[in-house]
Amino acid sequence: MNSIELFKSKGLRGEITPPSDKSISHRAVMFSALADGKSRVRNFLRAEDPISTMNVFRRLGISIDDNGDELIIEGKGLTGLSEPFDILDCGNSGTTMRLVSGVLAGSPFFSVLTGDDSLRQRPMARVIEPLRLMGAAIAGRGGDKYSPLAISGCRLKAIKYKMPVASAQVKSCLILAGLYAEGTTEISEPFKSRDHTERMLKAMGANIDVEQLSIKVASHELKAMDVTVPGDFSSAAFFIAAALMLPDSEIMIRNVGMNPTRTGFLDVIMRMGAVITIENKREVSGEPVADLLCKSCDALKAVSIGAELMPSLIDEFPILCVLATQADGTTEIRGAEELRVKESDRIKAVAEELRRFGVSLEEFPDGISIKGRTDLKGCIAESYHDHRIAMSMSIAALAASGKTVINNASCVDISFPGFFDRLRGLSR
Ligand code: S3P
Known about the structure:
UDP-n-acetylglucosamine1-carboxyvinyl-transferase, Chain, 4-stranded mixed β-sheet, 13 helices, about 30% helix, binds shikimate-3-phosphate
């Protein structure tokens, strides 16, 4: 399936459970591999990105058995990984590359991390520089800017580091390196990014303290643990947006991860006038979870969003832009320069593709402004091989007149295998 045809929808009805959380799936595999003894991971996301993480840890000598129901991971402790026989392929996954680099910097052997064409163009100086301050022997292509990364693991020392950008990947890389360092590593971030690493490591007995924007971590062994991965809020967001935009829609989205460092999109759409009913709040493996009842809203209002909100809706930027086309007034999103270095340049991709749907917008170096409300017109859209662009443009297609073709649509498998079938199943 490389291009897909979509038509205007009369609305969405029914119930859906989103795929499991991608960020938590990566971490469950990584931290279980580094713990002492056997861990089980239920509801692991069997999508391309977390499978890259699983394959990397298998190549580092960890036994991971997938019995279809759960993963059984035989952790070998912080120092139990073995030198890989070949380069480690992280595929499209920035989370795999950046987090694993922190582990390998402290593991006493040689390793090389690479990835696909997109990942090899994403910035890696943001992990290379602080890891070197910790004493790591790490180098990257293009004068230490990009991957492949070559790492000769060695003894690390603790540092105090003020992160220039809010990034959970960089933060998690340094927390993991901190598990190998002599002394207490202190990290602070400009705005709060997702905190799945801190929550899971704490539950596994790590020596980690979090105080608002700063984290202290010192070396300590990890206890094996069973983890159940909740549904991914970022995957649910496409369905939330579709239900709001399409007429006569009502869907129940079950088992959605509601970690407050991830749900900035909900806060913003409520400011836009959406009514979302949050039901059955509960906790699953230390993460808040709920069911969301979402209905059409024909009175969406434009909003302005700045840098402080970006980390909590970083992956929802493309779908929020699609939603903005259906809001009264001009929506402006600024402080979003990080979106230029995701799986694609998501500001440019969204601007180019929404223009094809007939949207009037302005692109800025750090964001976009979008004029609503626009009658979207079916078109031929590109995915840029970026899963979130493909899914966002698919939702735009359901609101657009006539036929839309999305080219290179199979990249949805990075985070959401079966996306199009689920969409068809709910659409009337
Ligand atoms: C992720 C963090 C975010 C996010 C990515 C997954 C993670 O990246 O965009 O999809 O799992 O830690 P940054 O932390 O680099 O912004």
